[in-house]
Design the sequence.
């Protein structure tokens, strides 16, 4: 367990080990400081007025999400990717050195070390990931085809800068461009939250906690409310990337995030609380077992709960006056699929690329070409302009530069639906899966607790069985959830 808990194995040679840590620090800081400084000559007026205005990742993210002007989107996309070429040499050396360390521990390479975390032979795990992807691929293809046509694209591939996200990994930001023509207004949780002056960001957090206590979990300790960081401080810089912590392996649970009153943050609150309730559930385990059964399970728990945040639930807690009509189901499912389904091929291709880089199948003189080959194969996405090995486009994604394994996010997307379906069956929910909520159901809560309390004391198929009665990961729950949307998309596409 100690060996497979590593993400990076430093070589035993002290010189090489030191070189590796310096490279890692440099890669992460190059990414963190990454800015796009628009060329004032080429820019449109707004930028020419302020040629000194370099844009950081947040500003570029906003342009990609909000702009509907193709040249602006293209400029921002290309601009962000200029941060990466300086990382290429470091990344190449990082691959060599980290492989040296992994080999010393008995792994074939760093990728094999990552794949060995899953209580099965590394190659069997790779085959599992492929199996799950093949289950959901037809759903993704229907969504891709629909979006492509609604954007008026004549080719089979979608240019990467048109999907509302710098990596084209989640497409929810372009919902307005692809919404069904007859979609009603439906409801907008962000607007509801904004209108409720009696609910501040702590109040949003209380609503999240209340979901867990409705399942039978004990309330969070008073120290959670005193010691967490919920809003961005005015007087200093903090890392706002949301995270959840267990400080003492006992009761000192906290989150660190900069909440604003939006539907997105409402979702993130449930995600982070899922980590905290998991951490507390396994606190009785010995030190080595104080973790989720595999890294994907930790990411999936809060999202599972968030799937129960249905319109019906919002009515129950008084955030919505009445349930939207059934005719709103398709627009709501489409909005959700643009984030959750669109993410799947991206989620799996990141480590498909890295595994091949670590194994040597992809060589440094092929880094960028192979990256786009995989993005085309999995996502059906192409760069907005010709790329070459003078670029290093993989480095423009945080998890590559910072060496964070990615397969857990792909698996978590699949697992959250599997958990949701299992818990809904226990709660004897009526109606379709996307309208089902386990809110207030103690039996479902008890079953969830049973899995969480195992921590990492058993192989993950045991943990899965404790909750779902299944020992295999299974994407059919996700297909069930989106089944009405899939038929609708296919109808539209034909
Ligand atoms: Zn998380």
Sequence:
């Amino acid at each position: 367990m100690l060996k497979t808990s590593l993400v990076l194995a430093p070589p035993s040679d002290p010189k090489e080990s030191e070189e590796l840590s310096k490279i890692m620090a440099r890669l992460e800081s190059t990414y963190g400081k990454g800015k796009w400084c628009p060329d004032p000559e080429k820019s449109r007026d707004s930028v020419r007025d302020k040629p000194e205005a370099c844009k950081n990742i947040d500003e570029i993210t906003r342009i990609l999400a909000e702009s509907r002007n193709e040249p602006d989107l293209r400029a921002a996309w290309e601009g962000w990717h200029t941060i990466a070429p300086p990382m290429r040499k470091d990344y190449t050396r990082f691959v060599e050195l980290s492989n040296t360390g992994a080999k010393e521990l008995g792994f074939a390479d760093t990728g094999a070390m990552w794949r060995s975390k899953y209580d099965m032979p590394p190659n069997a795990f790779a085959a599992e990931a492929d199996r799950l992807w093949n289950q959901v691929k037809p759903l993704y293809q229907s969504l891709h085809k629909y979006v492509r046509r609604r954007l008026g694209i004549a080719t089979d591939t979608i240019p990467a800068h048109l999907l509302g996200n710098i990596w084209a990994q989640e497409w929810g930001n372009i919902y307005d461009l692809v919404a069904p023509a007859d979609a009603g207004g439906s409801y907008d949780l962000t607007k509801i939250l904004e209108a409720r002056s009696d609910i501040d960001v702590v109040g949003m957090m209380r609503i999240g906690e209340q979901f867990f206590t409705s399942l039978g979990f004990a309330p969070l300790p008073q120290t959670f409310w005193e010691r967490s960081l919920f809003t961005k401080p005015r007087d200093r810089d903090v890392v706002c990337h949301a995270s959840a912590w267990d400080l003492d392996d006992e009761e000192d649970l906290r989150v660190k995030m900069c909440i604003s009153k939006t539907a997105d943050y409402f979702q993130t609150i449930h995600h982070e609380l899922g980590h905290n309730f998991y951490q507390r559930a396994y606190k009785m385990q010995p030190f080595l077992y104080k973790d989720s059964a595999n890294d994907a399970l930790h990411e999936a728990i809060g999202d599972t709960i968030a799937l129960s945040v249905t319109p019906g639930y919002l009515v129950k807690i008084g955030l919505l006056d009445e349930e939207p009509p059934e005719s709103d189901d398709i627009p709501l499912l489409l909005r959700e699929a643009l984030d959750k389904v669109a993410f799947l091929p991206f989620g799996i291709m990141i480590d498909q690329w890295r595994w091949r880089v670590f194994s040597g199948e992809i060589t440094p003189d092929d880094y960028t070409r192979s990256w786009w080959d995989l993005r085309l194969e999995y996502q059906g996405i192409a760069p907005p302009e010709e790329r070459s090995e003078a670029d290093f486009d993989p480095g423009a994604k945080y998890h590559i530069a910072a060496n964070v394994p990615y397969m857990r996010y792909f698996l978590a997307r699949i697992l959250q639906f599997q958990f949701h379906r299992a818990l809904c069956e226990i709660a004897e929910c009526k109606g379709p899966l996307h309208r089902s909520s386990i809110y207030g159901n103690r039996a479902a809560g008890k079953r969830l607790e049973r899995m969480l309390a195992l921590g990492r004391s058993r192989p993950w198929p045991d943990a899965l069985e404790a909750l779902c009665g299944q020992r295999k990961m299974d994407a059919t729950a996700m297909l069930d959830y989106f089944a009405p949307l899939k038929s609708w998309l296919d109808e539209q596409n034909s």
In short: The radius of gyration is 23 Å. Residues 189-323+409-493 form one domain. The pocket of zinc ion is lined by residues 271, 275, 299 (CB under 6 Å).
